[in-house]
Amino acid sequence: MVRINKIVTKTKSKKAADAKATLENFVSKIEKELDSYFSNEITYAFGVSPKEKKLSSHIWNHIKEHNLRPAKRLRGSFVYYGYKLIGGKKEKDILRAAMSIELIHTALLMHDDFMDQDDTRRGLPTTHEHYKTYHEDNKFRFNSLHYGESMTVNVGDIALLAGHEIIGKSNFDSEKKLNALNRTLRGIVNTGFGQAYDITLEGKGIASEKDITDLHLAKTAIYTYENPLHIGAILAGSKQKDLELISKYAIPGGVAFQLQDDILGLYGDPIKTGKPAHSDLRQGKMTLLIIKALELGSKTQQKRLKEIWGKRNLTEAEANEARKIVRDTG
């Protein structure tokens, strides 16, 4: 039995190492494409006057800097490997399509950080913080916070629409492009509804285990796993039965991914996760960890966790208290 366990462990470790190497290989490819794309957009930035063109170039520079921060490129990789899974051969074209999803993801992160009021993303200022500082450095009038948040909505929208444009301008045949664009658009629309549900659950401060599972299905399972895999498969000419088979993997995979992400959000290293320490706690994020701790904890534990959870000026000591309560309640 010991020998079998060692073999299983070794096999799992090798598969994990192979998967990591495969993803790293993809990351190096797509980031070259992204860098080239951004350089072109910065050079030819829109502007009817030199002043407007200068601001447009600044915006593209920020989108580039934000996007090229160290990242896993998971969603882009799913577009790429979803395409390969169905037998697609257009390497350059599918890298461009995968790049579009990474740009869309950057847009949603910008908006998400604004909604969560996070100050950093992957160790550097979030977009609303970047433009708040830009306002202050340039000594603009009115409120720097409002300027930063307004620019985040605008810059995020630019990145979001530019991402969709990349698919539209790709070299795939018209029917495949249209189907992929429709799938992308509907996936983002549904993600928006999922985000609205997430924000509403946070506002209520009450949720069941089913509510949390439904939320993960509505957001992460579709957005992070199913949608990009389907886009890649569609561009390769997949049949409906292919998409259905992919969904059987993607949906539970996406839920598992989000559960793991919630664990990292509470216990992970901010340097590795790219998220500020105890951001989820401070935000009052609805997770299965919190719901179960409130369900299984003693009255004292429940009371203390409710005091800490969602506290905007949360201290590290209080965050550690919450972590201990979650751990002690199983």
Automatic annotation (TrEMBL):
| Requisite cofactors | Mg(2+)
Q: Name one Pfam family in it.
A: polyprenyl_synt
Domain of life of the organism in this record?
A: Bacteria
GO BP annotations, alphabetical order: isoprenoid biosynthetic process
A GO molecular-function annotation? metal ion binding
Q: What are the protein's UniProt keywords?
A: Isoprene biosynthesis, Magnesium, Metal-binding, Transferase
Q: Which InterPro entries match?
A: Isoprenoid_synthase_dom_sf (IPR008949), Polyprenyl_synt (IPR000092), Polyprenyl_synt_CS (IPR033749)
For this protein, the record's PANTHER family field holds:
FARNESYL DIPHOSPHATE SYNTHASE (PTHR43281)
Recorded family membership? Belongs to the FPP/GGPP synthase family.
* Record's protein name: Polyprenyl synthetase
Recall the taxonomic lineage recorded for the source organism: Bacteria, Candidatus Woeseibacteriota
